[in-house]
Amino acid sequence: MAFDGTWKIERSENYEKFMEALGIGMMKRKLGAHDNLKITIQQNGDKFSVKEASNFRNIDIEFTLGVSFDYSLADGTETSGVWTLEGNKLVGTFTRKDNGKVLKATREIVGDELVQTYVYEGVESKRFFKRA
């Protein structure tokens, strides 16, 4: 499975603007921009296990493609959503529980990088990861 492995953040594009659109305060945005995120992904058929480790939190997430689940963003914002596989992309659609607005996320392998793209309220951000 292409996503399997441990991925370490290398760089981000427009991440602070994305966090601002989410309503995250300036101090948390500054810290979040340097979160040192490491993601470990294991796929077994339609089931995924994802471990996120950063300077701020460590969390284990288990989900099945096409099945809705609850997820908390790093700032504590509660969402409910689903991941699907569209071609070679993982596509996530998450709805915030506090305001009903939608956060879109994709994960795809581009060359030797895992690229995560987020879109919220018209603001797009990309985060680029290399295998650890």
Automatic annotation (TrEMBL):
Family annotation (SUPFAM superfamilies): Lipocalins
PROSITE patterns recorded: FABP (PS00214)
SUBUNIT field: Monomer.
GO MF terms, alphabetically ordered: lipid binding
Family: Belongs to the calycin superfamily. Fatty-acid binding protein (FABP) family.
Keyword terms: Transport
Segments traversing the membrane: none
Any single Pfam family the record assigns to this protein: Lipocalin
Cytosolic fatty-acid binding proteins domain: residues covered: 5-22
Protein name: Fatty acid binding protein 2
InterPro entries per the UniProt record, alphabetical: Calycin, Fatty_acid-bd, ILBP, Lipocln_cytosolic_FA-bd_dom
